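HUMAN: You are asked to prepare a plain-text protein record giving the amino acid sequence and the C-alpha cells, both parts labelled.

ASSISTANT:
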Amino acid sequence: MNFQSVARCIVLFTFLAAFAQGGSAEVAEVKVLGVGDKMESFTLKDQNGNEHLLDSSVSVILFSRDRAGAGVMTRSMEGRDGDFLAERGVVYVNDISAMPRAAAALFAVPKMRTRPYPILLDRKADLTAQFPDKAKFATLVHFDSLEVTEVEYVREDTALAERLEALPKKD
C-alpha cells in the first residue's frame, strides 16, 4: 500500500467517522452581506497561524467556500506575493470548514504554507457565513470603511488575475 492509498483511507475514515457522529450541525441563519451592508471587524488566522484583523483597512476580500473557487483564486495568484495583495488592500480568505480535519491538517494547510501570501482560514464557517459566494467561483467583496460597495463573482483565473491587477494601489 503506497502513501496515496494510506492517505485516501485516512480521509475516508475521517469522513465516515464524522458522518457517524451526526455529520452536519444545524447552522443558524445568517444574513449574507450585500451592497450597502456593513461588516463588523473580526480576526482570522492564516495558514501559518498568524492572526489578521479584517477592519476598515480592507478594500477587497477575495473569498471562496469551495475547492473549485479556491483553485481559481490560487491560479490567479501565480507569481504574486503578499505585497501584491497588501498594496491593494486585498485579503485572501478560504472557508475550509467543509473539509475533513485530517485532510486539512495533513494535506491542504501544509500545501497552503508553501504560498508566499497569507491565506486566512475559516475552519468553522461562522465568521465567513456572512460572505456572499457562488459555487465554483471566486468572490470579490469590495468595501469602503467596512461597507460593501460591490460583489463580483469570477470563474476564470485569468479574468481574476486581470481584475486583481486592475485594483488601485492604496496610498
About this structure: The chain has five helices and seven strands. Strands lie at 42-46, 51-54, 60-64, 90-95, 120-122, 138-144, 147-154. The longest helix spans residues 3-20. Residues 47 and 119 are 6 Å apart (CA to CA).
